[in-house]
Design goal:
This protein is an alpha/beta fold and about 325 residues long. It has 2 domains: about 140 residues, Quinone Oxidoreductase, Chain A, domain 1, CATH 3.90.180.10; about 140 residues, NAD(P)-binding Rossmann-like Domain (Rossmann fold, 3-Layer(aba) Sandwich), CATH 3.40.50.720. About 30% of the residues lie in helices and about 30% in strands. It has 9 helices and 15 strands. The strands form 3 sheets. Strands 3, 4, 5, 6, 7, 14 and 15 form a 7-stranded mixed β-sheet that branches. The longest helix is centred in the middle third of the chain and has 23 residues.
C-alpha cells in the first residue's frame, strides 16, 4: 500500500518540501508501525522546514516532530496492535522520519501511550508545545513554587507553548501575567486564564541587571533580552523555566539576580526527556489541562498546507495550536 507523506529535500543549501506517495518499504527501521491520525506544527517545525536552523540532519526526510495514531504492527513489549500512542521529539525530523505522513515506524521506547482523557486530535492540539509547557510547570513546582508564591509570567503567551502554559497555570490556581507582542489577543489570553496581559516591548529591549521584584516565576519561550529582563524582575527564591529561543539564543543578563535573590534558572528539554518524565507530564496534562480551553486554541489544516505555516509560525503570526490532519 502507499500513503501520503510530506518529504523534505535539500539542494544548494535550500530545503523544499513536497507531497508525495511512499510505501512502508520507505519507512525507517523500528519495532512499531503506526497509522497516523494527526500531527502538528511547532516552532521547531518551522525552523526545520525553512532551514533557519539545521534541525533536519539527513535528506530526504519526512519532517514533523510529533504524531498521534493507532498501532498497526508491533514487536515491542508493552505496545500492542490497536493501542493509541503519541510521540514527541526524540529523533523525529532530525535523523528519523517524522509525523507529516499517514504512516510512521519508530522504536517502541520513543512512544507514549495516549491518556484516556484525550483523543489523538487532542494529543496533537497539545503536541510538543503543550508537553513542553507541562515540563516547565513541573520545573516551577520542583523549585518549590505554589499559587501562594506569587504571580507567574508567561512570555510568548500567544504561541503554542505560551497559550497552553497560561491555561495549565490558571487551572492550577496561579495568577498569570501573559506577555505578548499581539495585544489584540488580550481577550483570547484572558479566556485561557490570564489575569493580566502586558506588551512584550516592556521586556524585549536591554534592561537593568536587577530590577524591582514583580513575579515569583516564569515560563519563557523567547530568550535573549526578554528572559534577561524576566530574571531581573523575579522575586527571591523564584524559578524561571527556559524552554525557547524565539528572540534569540543569547542570555545578555547578570549574575546579580541569581546571587542576591537565590533564583533558579531551569532549562527545559523536550526532545530527549526520559520516558518516566514524559509519562508524568502527559498524566499531569490529562489532570490539569482544561480540554475545553485547549480546543479553543486549535486550528486544523490538511497535510498539504503545512509548509505554508512554517514561516508564519516563525514570524509570530500563528495563534495557539495548529493541528495537521494527515488524512485530509
Amino acid at each position: 500500500m502507499t500513503f501520503n507523506a510530506l518529504l523534505a529535500t535539500q539542494a544548494d543549501n535550500k530545503i523544499t518540501t513536497s507531497l508525495t506517495k511512499l510505501s512502508d518499504a520507505d519507512l525507517m527501521p523500528g519495532d512499531v508501525t503506526i497509522a497516523v491520525d494527526y500531527s502538528t506544527i511547532n516552532y521547531k517545525d518551522g525552523l526545520a522546514m525553512t532551514g533557519r536552523l539545521p534541525i533536519i540532519q539527513t535528506f530526504p526526510l519526512i519532517p514533523g516532530i510529533d504524531f498521534a495514531g493507532t498501532v498497526v504492527e508491533s514487536s515491542y513489549s508493552g505496545i500492542a496492535v490497536g493501542d493509541k500512542v503519541l510521540q514527541n521529539g526524540w529523533a523525529l525530523s532530525q535523523t528519523h522520519h517524522g509525523g507529516y505522513a499517514q504512516r510512521a515506524r519508530v522504536r517502541g521506547e520513543w512512544l507514549t501511550k495516549l491518556p484516556s482523557a484525550f483523543t489523538t486530535r487532542d494529543a496533537m492540539a497539545i503536541g510538543t508545545a503543550g508537553y513542553t509547557a507541562m515540563l516547565s510547570v513541573l520545573a516551577l513546582e520542583h523549585g518549590g513554587l505554589t499559587p501562594s508564591s506569587g504571580d507567574i509570567i508567561v512570555t510568548g503567551a500567544g504561541g503554542g507553548v505560551g497559550s497552553i502554559a497560561v491555561a495549565i497555570l490558571s487551572n492550577l490556581g496561579y495568577r498569570v501575567i501573559a506577555s505578548t507582542g499581539r495585544l489584540e489577543e488580550t481577550d483570547y489570553l484572558k479566556s485561557l486564564g490570564a489575569s493580566e496581559v502586558i506588551d512584550r516591548a516592556t521586556l524585549s529591549n536591554p534592561g537593568a541587571p536587577i530590577a524591582t521584584e514583580r513575579w515569583a516565576g516564569a515560563v519563557d519561550s523567547v530568550g535573549s533580552h526578554t528572559i534577561a529582563n524576566v530574571i531581573a524582575q523575579t522575586k527571591y527564591l523564584g524559578v524561571v523555566a527556559c524552554c525557547g529561543l524565539a528572540q534569540g539564543l543569547d542570555l545578555p543578563g547578570s549574575m546579580l539576580p541569581f546571587i542576591l535573590r537565590n533564583i533558579t534558572l531551569a532549562g527545559i528539554d523536550s526532545v530527549n526527556a526520559p520516558s518516566k518524565m514524559r509519562d508524568l507530564a502527559w498524566s499531569r496534562l490529562a489532570r490539569d489541562l482544561d480540554v475545553g480551553k485547549l480546543r479553543t486554541t486549535v486550528k486544523e489544516i490538511p497535510l498539504a498546507d503545512t509548509p505554508n505555516y512554517a514561516q508564519a509560525i516563525l514570524d509570530g503570526k500563528v495563534r495557539g495550536r495548529t493541528v495537521v490532519n494527515v488524512n485530509a
